[in-house]
Amino acid sequence: MVFNSFIFLIFLAIVLIAYYRLPRRYRNLFLLLCNYLFYIYFDVRFASLLLAITVIDYFLAEKIQAFSSYKGKKRILIIGLITNLLALGIFKYFNFFMDSFVSMISIFGFHLSYKALELILPLGISFYIFQSLTYLFAIYLEQIEEKYTLLEFAVFVSFFPTISAGPIERASNLLPQIRQPRSFSSSHIREGFILITAGMFRKVIIGDTAGKIVDHVFAQPQYFASLEIIMGILLFAVQIYNDFAGYSSIAKGVAKLLGFEIMDNFRQPYLSRSILEFWRRWHISLSNWLKDYVFKPLQFKFRDYDHWGNIISLLLTFTLCGLWHGARWTFIIWGFLHGFYMSFSLLTANLRRTIRQKLVRSESLKKYSQISITFFLVTFSWIFFKAESFGNASVIFERLFHWTSSELTLRIVIIMASYSLASIFIDFIEIKFQSQAFLLCFSKPVRTAIILTCWTTIFLYLFTYEKSPFLYTRF
Amino acid sequence: MKTSKRNLKSFIIFSLTMISGLLTVEIFLRLTEISLPSYVYDDPKLGRTFRPNAKIFRADAEGFCISQVNKYGYLGKPYDREKNRDSLRICLVGDSFVEGMQVFDRNHFRTILENELKQGLNRNVEVLNFGIGGIDFRVMYFIYSQRILEFNPDIVLFFVKDDDFLSADVLPAPEIIVRDNELAIDYSFLNNAESKLRRTFKIVRNFSLGNLSKEAFEQFYLGRFWKIVLDKMNFLLAKGQKQEPIHQPQDRENDRYFGVNTKIIRQLDIDANKHGTRNIIIKVNSWPSYYSDILSREKIMVFDLESELAHYINDEIYFKAFEEFGHWNYFGHRIVADYLAKSILLLYDQDKNCQKE
């Protein structure tokens, strides 16, 4: 069930009432049942893989804990990694790699045929596998010393607020909370509800509506004028941010209602002054995961190559990051592009600093120019992220570089500006009040009126139009 | 006393914030065009009519269109009522296929046809789009007689599908009926429930938020409330509720509109001679054969678009809306325009040959 649906709101209300009425010792068991109910609502077949991964990882972690030798622990960790990545590989990447392989060897005149696997991609597979792996890593690195039960671990892996699109929680953060007794707190309920309201507004009113335009522009770019293509690209930047930040905010809010504190996944990323900063503020849980478990080990491996070691590690990490998002070459290009941006900024850091010092004296001008350049680079890379194929992306570039005017210029500029301003406005308020639950800072009548206005609009929209799935649930 | 003062203050702050919040949402909806004030209104004389100069924005499963009703209240380029003598003026009338709010005007067959005819005939051509969603053949005739003729067309193209002949129009609109063996207009629609409901929403629909509310209410009105709320769990309530299939009569005896449709077809022939227009019916899909017989008897020209479209598979020419095929897509519009241009050019060639002979 998706967050932006009435059925989810009904489900959440029932879960909350039952959850807080139950004796504490039954709450985890009840939560596990709710997690699976939430998950099988999408498709009952998805649950078996989730269950298998949970059981396998739990027992592998037990094994790691049982071994006293470093070698033994490492061997089990590798088995765990292979098992998890194999599951991910088969369900998510098998057909992609086979297709690519067959196309590649056909260049050399060999013609192979294979039967594509007719597999459905289990929802949130990339998220829960990465989340489950954090437990294996934490046990291996001895960050977790306590022994958790299978029930607690199963609640952690299938935690319904985060299972479909993250944040990818760390075992060291969530498992202790699962073990702790949780009691009803009206301040948690208030904050959780505000986070859900803000997230729903972002997702339904900003993200989904922008997405309607984006989908059409990217589906058949050949029919649109250059400015309309720019609108499609810019609105995709708005859509993906509000869709995903909206999801994360709802997830955080739902977790809060249940008495859990999960990590922030976004911190106004489009206001970053560099790509490095962007990745510290965008999809924070994934970038931290990749930093800790991919980049750092790679950096260690290539430590003798100085600067170039960092660059190779960056390029590999970001290419993997692209692949994590989906089995498509355009995702890989998107990831590689970010790796390239980071490497380029690393190589030219000194030169850029000198130029900046000589050319730009004003601090605010420097700040805004850096934000603009970063935003431009990120938005440019979204073209590959959104385009279904190279062909599609090349038509977009062709339309951009051979300028064609639109008879609707003013309206398109107004639409672009309005979406961007709305998105920036929410970011601005979040920064000003230093909280995503900024409505808590207002007086009760103001807060109630704003919440009521938001929900009126959200309900009207949900009633009128088909609900769109969250973009990141596809990954 | 103190508490009641505090409560009053809270209430005033709440109300003011609520009003400002709704205003902000209204502005946001208008600027982003997520929801605009309605571009149609229910005119007591003309029925469902486009609001002149209203903005149009549609982006749904089927297509995407940003457009505007012109100052004369039809779609496409605004052409004045008075026609330049050297120009060829073509008026299109039909339902949502002709309205074509799935593509931008530049990709609509209206524009493509206009450009192709300009090139082919080497003269100025003006194509005016009077298409409006949800109308049937009788409403098409109503629009023709009440609005299109004012614009002095040379050719009027009526885009007719099977259900345009067979079914009653779903919109509350003036109805063409036969009274004393003559065509007449019946305004009884003004008393029906839907018409009253629409009039209730008249002011509300001038606001973006109001129009959104009206659309949401429509879902409720159409009985979709529980389906939307309960999603997959709707089966709990939907048990036993079977939707009756809509019965379309395919025989002349049961076709309650056959009489009036026949009369309209005859009248089109009379009007063509009277106003010097060429009225052509575009066969969009299969009609019952008895309509073809009437049309051939009355010497009304028919362009068989259906046969042309049959060369293509559905995927090529229609947008896919969810699991079903919807309106013409970009390629579909191109095919329709090419076919119409070819047919009209052929017609003018034949005319030239006749004149020579």
Task: Give an overview in words.
- The complex is a heterodimer of chains A (475) and B (357).
- Chain A has 18 helices and no strands.
- Chain A has helices at residues 6-21, 24-42, 46-66, 70-107, 125-140, 150-158, 171-179, 186-219, 226-257, 275-281, 284-301, 306-325, 329-347, 349-359, 363-386, 390-401, 409-433, 444-464.
- The model of chain A has no long low-confidence stretch (mean pLDDT 93).
- In chain A, helix 2 (24-42) packs across helix 6 and helix 8 runs parallel beside helix 18 (444-464).
- Chain A is an all-alpha fold and 475 residues long.
- The two termini of chain A are 16 Å apart.
- Chain A has 2 domains: 6-181, no CATH class; 188-474, no CATH class.
- Chain B has 357 residues and is of the alpha/beta class.
- Chain B has one domain (33-234, 251-356): Rossmann fold (3-Layer(aba) Sandwich), CATH 3.40.50.
- Helices cover 44% and strands 18% of the residues of chain B.
- Chain B is built from 14 helices and 13 strands.
- Chain B has helices spanning 2-32, 96-99, 109-121, 137-146, 162-166, 193-200, 208-221, 225-230, 235-238, 258-275, 289-297, 305-309, 314-317, 330-356; strands at 40-43, 47-50, 55-59, 64-68, 88-93, 125-129, 155-160, 175-179, 182-186, 278-283, 301-303, 318-321, 324-328.
- In chain B, the strands form 5 sheets. In chain B, strands 6-5-7-10-11 form a 5-stranded parallel sheet, with helices on both faces.
- In chain B, strand 1 (40-43) and strand 2 form a beta hairpin.
- In chain B, helix 3 (109-121) packs parallel to helix 14.
- The radius of gyration of chain B is 24 Å and the shape is globular.
- The mean pLDDT of chain B is 89.
- The chains are: A mainly alpha (475), B alpha/beta (357).
- Chain A binds chain B through residues 1, 5-7, 10, 41, 205, 209-210, 212-213, 216-217, 220, 223-224, 407-408, 411-412, 414-415, 417-419, 422, 443-446, 448-450, 452-454, 456-457, 459-466, and chain B through 10-11, 13-15, 17-18, 21-22, 24-25, 28, 31-34, 55, 59-61, 63-64, 66, 103-107, 209, 212-213, 215-216, 219-220, 228-233, 330.
